[in-house]
Amino acid sequence: MADGPNHQTQPWPGPSSRQPLDLHSTTRSPGEQQCDFAGPFSPGKRGRKNPNQPPILAMASRGGGARRTRPNVLVTGTPGTGKTTTCSLLADAVDLRHINIGDLVREKSLHDGWDEELECHIINEDLVCDELEDMMGEGGILVDYHGCDFFPERWFDLVVVLQTDNSILHDRLTSRGYMGAKLTNNIECEIFQMLLEEARESYKEEIVMPLRSDNVEDISRNVGTLTEWINNWRPSRS
Ligand SMILES: Nc1ncnc2c1ncn2[C@@H]1O[C@H](COP(=O)(O)OP(=O)(O)O)[C@@H](O)[C@H]1O
């Protein structure tokens, strides 16, 4: 699912040739729509914490985890923080299936067309969720996306938020061809830790794991940490 260069495990894959994800969501208000930018989005809409939901239903909605024999892990973060690189290495290490949502949307046309103004695809979140539902129920999936609030909460056992120093991220995005508002928006997204906030609003805080991703050593350490976590994971008995 990931691009060629990021499939390598050794040595360090080097600069990525992949293109920007170029997706935004129809559920976000016009002021919030950004290309490759996870903005200050509204609280989630599907399967998320719902204060009006009776406790017993909330427990049942987490029951999907009990059916899984392998965990599902979401790796999120601002574009350029290293999600695809980390997921590619991790998927090889632990034999999870890596799903890059940007690639999936383009391959299966899970979008509502092209936004001329923002120069990006308009992701159809419902189509994405429908496409993934069955495989998420089976477990063993590593999801890679620069947003996290539209997935059902019950899907994930761990939500990793990669974070990168602003100046390092600036260089990575510039070398990817980002400029102008697209560059600024993504850097601001990182400065204000929007993905971490979105993750904490959308999932139980104890399953949200922020990890630094500034350099090669960070990637190696993160892959090691996540490999250990995944290998030690056991299905819930509840
Ligand atoms: N921790 C890191 N250290 C050094 N380079 C990195 C790191 N993480 C990512 N990169 C590089 O930054 C670029 C973007 O990485 P990528 O994995 O595509 O990010 P994302 O999937 O979050 O958009 C790639 O050229 C990759 O090699």
* Helix and strand element order: EHHEHEHEEHEEHHHEH
**CATH T-level fold name:** Rossmann fold
Indicate the low-confidence ranges by residue numbers. Answer: 1-22, 26-64
> How many β-strand stretches?
8
CATH architectural group: 3-Layer(aba) Sandwich
Sheet-strand content, in percent, reads: 5-15%
Q: Helicity range of the residues?
A: 25-40%
By CATH, the superfamily comes out as P-loop containing nucleotide triphosphate hydrolases
CATH class: Alpha Beta
What does this structure look like?
The chain is of the alpha/beta class and 238 residues long. The chain has nine helices and eight strands. Strand 4 (111-115) and strand 5 (120-123) form a beta hairpin. Helix 6 runs antiparallel to helix 7 (180-191). It binds adenosine-5'-diphosphate. It catalyses: AMP + ATP = 2 ADP; ATP + H2O = ADP + phosphate + H(+). Residues 1-80 are annotated as: Disordered.
Q: What labels would you give this structure?
A:
39% helix, 15% strand, 9 helices, binds adenosine-5'-diphosphate, five-stranded parallel β-sheet, alpha/beta
Give the topology, please.
Elements lengths: L22 E3 L29 H7 L2 H4 L5 E4 L6 H12 L2 E4 H8 L2 E5 L4 E4 L1 H14 L2 E4 L13 E6 L2 H10 L4 H12 L2 H9 L5 E5 L3 H17 L6
Parallel strand pairs: 1-5, 2-6, 2-7, 3-6, 7-8
Antiparallel strand pairs: 4-5
Helix pairs in contact: 3-9, 6-7
The structure holds adenosine-5'-diphosphate.
The site of adenosine-5'-diphosphate has 19 residues, from helix 3 and helix 9.
